[in-house]
Amino acid sequence: MKSLFYLLLVILLLVISYTTAASQSIITTLPGYNETLPFKLETGYIGVGEKDEVQLFYYFIESESDPQKDPLLLWLTGGPGCSGFSGLVYEIGPMAFDYATFDGSLPSFTINPYSWTKIANIIFIDSPVGTGFSYATTSQGYTSSDTKSAKQNYAFLRKWLLNHPTFLKNRLYVVGDSYGGKIIPMLALEIAESGNEAGLQPRMSLQGYVVGNPVTDENKDKNERIPYAHRMALISDEYYEDHNYATSYVWANDETVQEALHIRKRTKKQWTRCNMSISYEKDVESVLKYHQLLSEKGYQVLAYSGDHDMGISYMSTLKWIHALNLTVDDEWRPWTVDGQVAGYTERYKNNEAYLTFATVKARASLIESAFSKNIVM
After folding, report:
1. Gap between the Cα atoms of 312 and 215, Å rounded
2. Helix (H, G, I), strand (E, B), or coil: what is residue 5?
3. Residue 275: how many CB atoms within 10 A of its CB?
4. Coil, strand or helix at 146
5. Would you state the CATH architecture of domain 23-372?
6. What are 125-170's pLDDT values in tens digits?
7. pLDDT computed for residue 369 by the predictor
8. Segments making up each domain of the chain, as ranges
């Protein structure tokens, strides 16, 4: 009887080990797209924490140009609590939902010709824990904060690179928007100081970071909303289509979709695009000092703002940039796409480090043009 008990215990430990270990799968087809995917998609989990109790899910898409030479980007979405799927499908990824054909059933995809994956390798991460398909194996593991999230993202990236050593030499940028803009400089400094400068392996080829309409100091950010509204005409409610939240929920909660993505069974009751109920402490009030330190260390920065975003307005971003007391290297001027003004930009310099600010008009897809045409990097 005792030997049977030990045998069952060993089997149980093996099952637990199997279900919590890092995993990765190459996805060639997806429900909602009838052909073979025209890009290389990998999904997987990476465990972080003392006992890998936090399992962070990710989508990785190789560059459609030159994966071995093009930069590697880690994309952090806002919230906190919004899935990396938001960046993949609604912002900079190679696929977008086909709203014209959506009738409430499983939605279909179209290819996004403006995808950043045309020129970059991108990891879209479900972070912090509880976001998207990420989960924890203990109740304590679901507790997170700004500081904890930055450290767990660093542990994730370190393990990811150890599992993908061919990308160790690629230029690395930490990128994202909204609340992700708060974690990005914290993570970048973690890579620079706790990793590279401390001699921890593998050494990451961090070049800089990109933040879009970024949270920097929430109290000060909010104070800029009224002056911004005074300057700008607000867009109408009709600008947003009611079925935009619906498509992703129908697709990501479909059983065939989760099987295709290799989602671990029974780790999530229901996928939500933005999980606003996660246990999360905002324990860092301002990340201005992180921007200052990274600038002094020589890292390159692109800060961009959609000029119709009142949540974190361009005025708020310009305010913290000016607080860094950098030297203007290239004065305020328009930048264009196909001969049309797509926004305005100004570049600042601190020794050999450049920080470029750019506004983006109308379509988010124009942000890709700013990136691909090397406004800053």
Report:
1. 7
2. helix
3. 22
4. helix
5. 3-Layer(aba) Sandwich (3.40)
6. 999 999 999 999 999 999 999 999 999 999 999 999 999 999 999 9
7. 45
8. 23-372
